[in-house]
Amino acid sequence: MKLSIETNQRPSVQALPSTNPCDPAIGSPTEAVRTKYRQLCEHRNDIPIFSQAWWLDATAGRDNWNVCLIEEGGRIIAAMPYAYRRIRGFPVIVQPKLTQTAGPWFAPMDGKPSSVMSRQMRYMAELIDQLPLFSHFQQNWKYLHTNWLPFRWRGFSQSTSYTYLLPRLDNLGDIWNGFQSNIRTDIQKAERRLQLCVRDDLDLEVFLELNRHVFARQGLRRGYSDDYVRQLDVACRQRLAGKTLIAVDPEGRPHAGVYLVWDEQSAYYLMGGGDPALRNSGATSLCLWHAIRFASTVTQSFDFEGSVLEPVERFFRAFGAEQKPYLTLTKTPSHLLATFLFLRSRRTTS
User: Fold this and answer.
1) In this predicted structure, what is the pLDDT of residue 50?
2) Assigned CATH class of 28-161+326-349
3) What pTM does this model have?
4) Are 217 and 268 in contact (CB under 8 A)?
5) What is the distance of C-alpha 201 from the center of its chain?
């Protein structure tokens, strides 16, 4: 993961007392703000799954996230949830594990595009003002959010990454025809020659073992534990917003699997896994094809979530998906923490 580090800001080694109602150190006002946001999430279907209150409860912990809110006439018209923790004692605002995006949400607004943008710019400035003091900030914004100027004017930095999206799922024939030939060949081999069957009723532990294999094969450490995934899985299934799809051969051996989550706008490829001894069976392509087909019954688009790894990027692109740039916003007022994060990123990429 790339870290964009600000080093020209005033040092802030530790958080100072604040009267901000969104400051986690304040106590009861924090829960009052969260309660308002929970109610908003229950009544709005345009808040992405990764910004939903129940998702943040499951990934960050009920007491480890908060939200900045703007109200007009008793109605919430802008919000920006955030998770917080400490790194080496420094207060930081970062996304929870397995949480792909964050960023601001705005209620629908009427008016000329220039007027709507002016209001959103003003709201973003107000949201920034509500943030508690921090030593480091990092959020990935959904690709739909392209305007970050108010954050730039406040000393934040921005870098660009990419995801891959199937924007419409209403014609599976067109989607199939948009696959590159190697993807279609893999799927047909898996189904016809190897007779793999994709199941959604297997225990989560089967997927977790496949997921561990991916990291072990590459000599990488997973950034999350099995218990963390189990906790998230319970929350997703309670909300009918997550499932596993696992390709199994006639002997009952699991070849590969994907973990899918979704909201009313999109489905998201959250995690994957595969048996390294069976990685040439085409099972991952088959699982993703089944995931896309399922997604077409519950939502509008399919987000592969992208990757900075060249082979993974090439694989996602082969499904005929559109490249979508998204923003990563960072700010590190603490010179000491900036140095620590830079050195840590060097260790993880070397």
Assistant:
1) 98
2) alpha beta
3) 0.87
4) no
5) 25
